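go over both lines:
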Amino acid sequence: MINRNLRVVLAEDSVVLRDGMVELLSARGCEVVATAGTAPELLAAVVEHRPDVAVVDIRMPPTHTDEGIRAAVEVRARTPEVGILVFSQHVETAWASRLLADGAGGIGYLLKERVARTSEFVDALQRVANGGTALDPEVVTQLMRGGQHSRVDTLTPREREVLELMAQGHSNRSIAALLLVSERAVEKHVAAVFTKFDLPATGADNRRVKAVLTYLAESGS
């Protein structure tokens, strides 16, 4: 992963939370180039500043329902090079599926109450900015509910476990530690997933992202 000082646009309608996040991110070396309290302000800020990543709350004025994530989908359509990290108290699976649908990576979805440390949040921002994924386990679980697809059906239970952890941003070494297996065993499961999803050898990181997005897209909705 390439670590760099990230340029961030932050969309959050709570002034207190927004100001606190600006301080925390700045202290971690990120440059918050703009903040937004509404969806239109977010869109304008992204077009103007072209950040590495936009942090977006789902519920924003005026209705406080799904304005933020709708705007995130529009940001992805207009500026696909900008990473999107949804940071919310709520899981909106339909809109999350739309964000993941293009298979391009650079997508994160974290739940506010489950981020324990600022370092975890900044690590997630880095993964998203570098084209990876950072998905809360609860988001993954809810996205996987729904219909099945033949390629998903071919996965073994262990391969699914490995892929779910990949979706959360874990490395092979981290997955091995969590599942109490060898790193070599994890590598074999990952290779099996690539084969079953018909992902040819290119960049390993790129294949990991595509495997995750294929899984989520075909398991849900």
